[in-house]
Amino acid sequence: MDLHLKESRVTGELVYDGHFLKVQRDTVRLPDGKNTTREYIKHPGAVVILPLFDDGTVLLERQFRYPLDQVFIEFPAGKIDPNEDPLVCAKRELQEETGYSGTDWTFLCTIHNAIAYSNEHLDIYLARGLTAGDSKLDDGEFLETFRASVAEVMTWVREGKITDVKTVIAAFWLEKIVTGQWTP
Hints:
The protein is an alpha+beta fold. Helix content is about 20%, strand content about 40%.
């Protein structure tokens, strides 16, 4: 198991315990026997949904993200609640954020989007058989939904109009699926 690369926790402390995120500071032993410090964000995990309509378009969101002070184009996503199954979370988040529900769900992959400073992971799901309904946004959550073709999404990635990492990775998965290069 690559023991020549493994770092081992010696001690640790929770230095910030927020409502959503926690910050951990650990002393670790390096492979050469020396000690150093690692600080990282503890995250509960999240899901990303690729809502694919029968006509080949996808459902996207526009949402303001405070840390970067701008509106981003993203696929629907949300954090996993304690002890919640990721697929249950994906179905809940799609309905809450967009009003849509799906009848055909496929797990695609798990990504780790910030491995240097967070334990966050995102499970990506493809949702088909979409039916419109009423959204139920959380208090303080504001977003717009819209449909786009996969070609448009890929153009926006190439042009830098989509920079959100989960959406970029999901877009590449989507492109491979709709062109038949990958079978989920």
